[in-house]
């Protein structure tokens, strides 16, 4: 090769090497830039997270129901930060889940289904060896029977635990009270029954595995066929012995739980509280727009009387809440009202003075649960005539009970009502009441003589307006927490 050609070849090689080095350098620079951008985008996403924006902008509102909503909102917003979109599973709990409990079939139905499942297992004709064909058929049959018996038991336990975990707090109390009432009959709680079903499933599963292994390792085709017959009957007998009773108990409990009334959480309500036989039901009938209905609960023969009153709201609920006289309830609202809403008036079972909180019966626990977990104002009703009729409804007990309940729920919208004033007052009762109220106004009421009824209706509307303000604020918090991140929020 001539010197000229050698220099030309070297020059071409240098050009190629330089081009390769430049390509490598450009690739490295792009990778570094891309990594830097990702880090900066991550920092921006963290610093501008909706949780941080929410924490800096939320206002302190001290109503207990709203505090629950803000706590719920914080956990939901954290999920939004991670996924950059609202989680579909984070929803405000509502009542009615007790009616959607998993459907549990009777033990006889589960066994019949297992028998039918076993018939679908057929011998594999592709296997020429009779022994191996029978071994496979026997193992698959026993496995199918085991699954047909165990899977429904697993679903019962998991389904109930999931639903109970996601119940609204009020429904949790109702479920607990229902189970407690049944416990008085048979001594078993709901968790006891679920644990029995879980243990029964484990025993059936172990036995099924043993029979499946025995059929798989049978010494002959005939023995494999005999193991199918024997093993299946043994599993059915084991199911009847261990699972039949707890499954039946769950079905009976389910019938009770599925009949519990659903309570609307987006509707303002006033709950009437007081000792037994103080005239709460009469007040509900007097101020309701229609005939009240009775919500019956499975653990008590004394249900909650539920009345309704139609309220016509102005655009700014905080400013004023209007009451329509009874004579005008049939008329269309004028242009000054933004919308109307059917609100609830709830008569609760009577409370008694208790030395220990654990001594309260199911009816009292239901009343306290309604006050604690539902969007309600409180109308505390007293009968100071001395003719309440119940030995536990004396004037002294009623006044003591009022102090205890008000101390327990100090932030609820509240009005005190002295009913049955047409029967007179026990000497000194009025002075004792005014001493406890310490200047707080109260209403003297007589349904028989129509005294104080209009004044009471006005107070009911006022309290419903206060509850609605809280509900609107709770809805705003939930809506804000569920809203996806937008550029305007940054």
UniProtKB/TrEMBL annotation:
Domain NOG1 N-terminal helical, first and last residues per copy: 99-263
Domain Nucleolar GTP-binding protein 1 Rossman-fold: 362-422
Protein keywords: GTP-binding, Nucleotide-binding
Pfam family, one: NOG1_N
Record bears the keyword Nucleotide-binding: yes
Region feature (Disordered): 72-97
Bias (Low complexity) ranges: 72-81
Domain of life assignment: Eukaryota
Listed Polar residues bias regions: 82-95
GO terms assigned for molecular function: GTP binding
InterPro entries listed in its UniProt record: GTP-bd (IPR006073), NOG1_N (IPR041623), NOG1_Rossman_fold_dom (IPR010674), P-loop_NTPase (IPR027417)
Record bears the keyword Glycoprotein: no
Descriptive protein name: OBG-type G domain-containing protein
Species assigned in the record: Ditylum brightwellii
